[in-house]
Amino acid sequence: MKHLKAINRKATRMEEVTKDVVALQGPPQQPEPPHIPNGCSLVFAPGWEADRNGGTAGLCQPVERDLFDCHMGCFWPAQVPDQLNHAPDWTAKCAAAQKDWRKIDLIFPDEKK
Amino acid sequence: MLGLREFHSFEAAGIRYLYLVPSAAVFALDDCSEAVLQELRGGPQPMADVASTLSSRFDAAEVSDTIAELQRVRALGEMATRPEGLSPPAPAPKIVPLRPVPLQTLVINVTNQCNLACTYCYEYGEDKIVDTTNGQQPKFMSEATARESVEFALRESRENKHAHITFFGGETLMNFPVLKSTIAYARRRAAEVGKEIDFSLTTNATLLQPDVIEFLTNERVGVTISIDGPEEMQDKFRVFNNGQGSYAMAAPKIKALLQRHRTRPVGARVTLTRQTLDVRRIYQHLTEELGFWEVGFAPVTTAPGRDYAISDGGFDHLLEQFRALAADYLAASLQNRHHGFSNVRETLQEIHHGHAKAYPCGAGIGLMGVSTDGRVALCHRFAGSDEHGLGTVTDGVSWERQQAFLDTHHVSNKTDCQTCWARPICAGGCYHEANTRYGSTQAPNLHYCEWIRGWTHTCLEIYGELAARNPGFLAQFDDEPTEKAS
Could you write out the three-class secondary structure of chain B? Predict the structure, then answer.
């Protein structure tokens, strides 16, 4: 920090460790694990019954989220553009699938090539 | 809308500082951060307005960097505007320990008898909690109970490598035989279980015979002496049963102890009353004339209206006296000289660490007290009280009772404390004092709020002064503070 100078030990810890004073008082937080729905085709179960916590709050719903859950989380060969070679940015405009899915457009061959 | 969150600002050595609440962090401000805070003192404003007001002095990027830093340390925050005005900040979370905390200090009341009859005594005086004169408890702790207490202290210290035992009374030295044998036993048992153990005691000094002094020196027992000052002050309240003052008997013995006992610093512990408030005179007598290394002061614990109770005006006077002595402490510390005003040293240590306390002291967590019959209570001041009991040294303490205590005594339960900037350091004050004054350990000690804020402010200024002018001095506070019995 440039404008504030830590003086006591708590201030030094705040500067070094965290951006959240309230969190300092609690146990260390685990980072959120990646979202992988349970009961998906990895185990050849047809369902979308339970999320990764065994509940229903994080199901693969609405359907727009399939796009990411299937081809990223579950390695399911969903029919999406080749993100590694030809179209690395095809979801760049889609920050939140449920809201922005309309912004994903079709992929056309580059006419110049 | 950007607005100020909770903090207390102070100035020392020409530098502006912030003491943040509830984190207890101390930051120094530069010109830009000071200007931003100043700008927002009138009330919340949109960030763009702050930048444009300050544009003649600081460029916009600098202001926005500063605002980000102030937000990061929670000195500023977004204030949601609602029709009824600004939303109050979210209350701090109430975090209670989920499992037993290792015991650091066990205070063992080896006797509840005393050869003095100090009028203001919390154990014998008008405000006593437990009837030790006509009660059921033995007057002296037996050797067997003392040994059980040692086992309890070692067991409850859990994963800690270190255990500490403080002997207390009554007059501790009236049960010198048990004290002596307990120390030998504790050393042996600590070695067997692979822990370090050390000892301290509090005494009125009247029974410090040469053999006792020899023992305390050889066993490296830390000694705190209860004494109120020069003869005329000591003899006001610290008297024998016949009303005769105790100074004449105590003073030569204290001198003998201070001459011989060099293995641990010997401190004086002064009880201040309405009649004995001359702090500088007391300090000067105890350090220069008697030779104490350190002197700590505490206002007498009392119900309001007692003859010796310090009144509101008295607290103002006391604060002035403390400030004058604290100025001496600062002057000495800037030159790396020792000064024995321990109230400043202890507060500086707390400021240095920036512990934001949920509880005013370690009672019922890291510190417990044992009565002569082996019952364990919150601290030595409650020893023997069923209402404040947690268990016994033989059967252990009940975690359910401890949890219930922690739940009901958390600072977030003390409504009056929620708007006070000094709560990270005070947390409502002594449970015993609250119980005496207001009839409940859960009450905050509202009679000395102004005094606590005034004193904390003074100590913050000293801390800021030292941080700017002699930062090396503060390194001595790096060790964690330990609980003391008083």
Answer: CEEECCEEEEEECCEEEEEECCCCCEEEECHHHHHHHHHHCCCCECHHHHHHHHHHCCCHHHHHHHHHHHHHCCCEEECCEECCEECCCCCCCCCCCCCCCCCCEEEEECECCCCECCCCCCCCCCCCCCCCCCCCCCCECCHHHHHHHHHHHHHHCCCCCEEEEEEECCCHHHHHHHHHHHHHHHHHHHHHHCCEEEEEEEECCCCCCHHHHHHHHHCCCEEEEECCCCHHHHHHHCEECCCCECHHHHHHHHHHHHHHCCCCCCEEEEEECCCCCCHHHHHHHHHHHCCCCEEEEEECCCCCCCCCCCCHHHHHHHHHHHHHHHHHHHHHHHCCCCCCEHHHHHHHHHHHHCCCCCCCCCECCCEEEECCCCEEECCHHHCCCCCCEEEECCCEECHHHHHHHHHHHCHHHCHHHHHCCCHHHHCCCCHHHHHHHHCCCCCCCHHHHHHHHHHHHHHHHHHHHHHHHCHHHHHHHCCCCCCCCC
Q: Give the pLDDT mean for B106-134.
A: 88
Please answer yes or no on whether B23 and A14 come within 8 Å at the CB atom. Answer: yes
Contact B353 A8 (CB under 8 A): yes
Determine the pLDDT at residue B421. Answer: 96
* pLDDT given at position A42: 47
Query: Do B467 and A7 lie within an 8 Å CB cutoff?
Result: yes
Q: Does B284 touch chain A (CB under 8 A)?
A: no
Interface mutation target, options B72, B359, B460, chain A, most CBs of A under 10 Å: B72
* pTM, 2 dp: 0.82
- pLDDT range class, residue B211, cuts 50, 70, 90: very high
At residue A26 the predicted structure's pLDDT band, cuts being 50, 70 and 90, is: low
pLDDT in tens, B242-281: 999 999 999 999 999 999 999 898 999 999 999 999 999 9
pLDDT at A41 over 50: no
pLDDT reported for residue B32? 96
Asked if B32 reaches chain A (Cβ–Cβ under 8 Å), the answer is yes
